[in-house]
């Protein structure tokens, strides 16, 4: 056991991995990054939800260290999307778990990620996140976003900070929370679940937002703790003129509409959300035209069903500004 963990009650962590990949070896690399954790004894279980993956999860489990393989559980379901997969994992968390950590099946944790997470929760955190590098990016997310000023957040160590500010606004206008960096106090938020109607955008933002509105203690690590991978990625095929982008824009519309309707936000944040909602609506119809030119007729069915459910998007798309 890591010396830093000796003499202390070991927090029990459940890791939830939604899994859908078309490339062999992707999940194995992700699991290997868990096995390399310096605080591996804190991980009680790793739950892999096989969401109807073309490459079965079981085929990715060979040659893993026994210290990890003994903690693994694979749950199979028909393909239903990442929200339902994560929720299935949350429904299956073992009794006595203190912390839930998320990890996508193509991302990799740095060796000290869980140790930093444990340190945050031992210092009273309810929610934890860390800096990361996104797909095909050399610069870290905090630096690229330009919204995280470390001097504004109290330092517990040289890299661990207590977040001080309006996290709700941060999430809704310049989110820096990468799902694969997140851990949260499951004992406090045991009933929280992802919105299953949002499959392509916004489901994670709403999950973080509901926690942020409860006035939690939030801590983060400023150095990169997660490297995002190159497996199946919901952004990779969401190119202009594709049905995938049509689905993503639809979910962004529903996400922002729901936020404005159901959650208390600051006036300036409300104005920014309204502005982005209008942009989403304009893009939604423009992308549909491009899809039609390319013969992607399925995008038209998305438009029709969305207009039936939320006819106001036509008016929003026509507005200036």
From TrEMBL:
Q: What is this protein called?
A: Glycosyltransferase family 2 protein
Q: Which organism is it from?
A: Thalassotalea euphylliae
Query: Organism's domain of life?
Result: Bacteria
Q: Which UniProt keywords apply?
A: Transferase
GO MF terms here are: hexosyltransferase activity
Tagged with keyword Cytoplasm: no
Record keywords: Calcium included? Answer: no
Pfam families per record:
Glycos_transf_2 (PF00535)
């Amino acid at each position: 056991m890591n010396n830093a963990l000796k003499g202390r009650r070991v927090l029990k962590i459940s890791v939830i991995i939604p899994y859908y990949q078309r490339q062999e070896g992707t999940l194995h690399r992700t699991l290997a990054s868990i096995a390399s954790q310096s605080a591996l004894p804190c991980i009680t279980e790793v739950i892999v939800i096989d969401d109807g993956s073309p490459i079965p999860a079981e085929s990715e489990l060979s040659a893993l260290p026994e210290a990890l393989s003994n903690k693994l559980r694979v749950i199979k379901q028909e393909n239903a999307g990442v929200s339902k997969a994560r929720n299935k994992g949350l429904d299956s968390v073992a009794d006595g778990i203190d912390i839930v950590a998320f990890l996508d099946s193509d991302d990799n944790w740095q060796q000290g990620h869980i140790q930093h997470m444990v340190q945050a929760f031992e210092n009273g955190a309810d929610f934890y996140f860390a800096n990361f590098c996104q797909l095909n990016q050399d610069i870290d997310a905090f630096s690229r976003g330009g919204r995280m000023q470390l001097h504004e957040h109290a330092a517990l160590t040289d890299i661990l900070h207590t977040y001080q500010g309006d996290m709700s606004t941060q999430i809704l206008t310049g989110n820096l929370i990468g799902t694969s960096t997140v851990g949260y106090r499951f004992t406090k938020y045991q009933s929280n679940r992802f919105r299953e109607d949002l499959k392509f955008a916004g489901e994670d933002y709403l999950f973080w937002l509901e926690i942020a509105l409860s006035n939690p203690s939030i801590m983060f690590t400023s150095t990169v703790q997660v490297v995002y991978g190159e497996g199946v990625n919901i952004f990779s095929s969401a190119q202009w003129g594709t049905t995938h982008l049509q689905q993503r824009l639809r979910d962004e519309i529903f996400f922002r509409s729901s936020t404005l309707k159901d959650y208390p936000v600051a006036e300036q944040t409300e104005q920014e959300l309204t502005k982005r909602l209008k942009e989403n609506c304009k893009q939604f119809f423009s992308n549909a035209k491009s899809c039609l030119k390319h013969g992607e007729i399925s995008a038209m069915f998305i438009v029709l069903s969305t207009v039936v459910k939320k006819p106001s998007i036509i008016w929003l798309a026509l507005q200036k500004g």
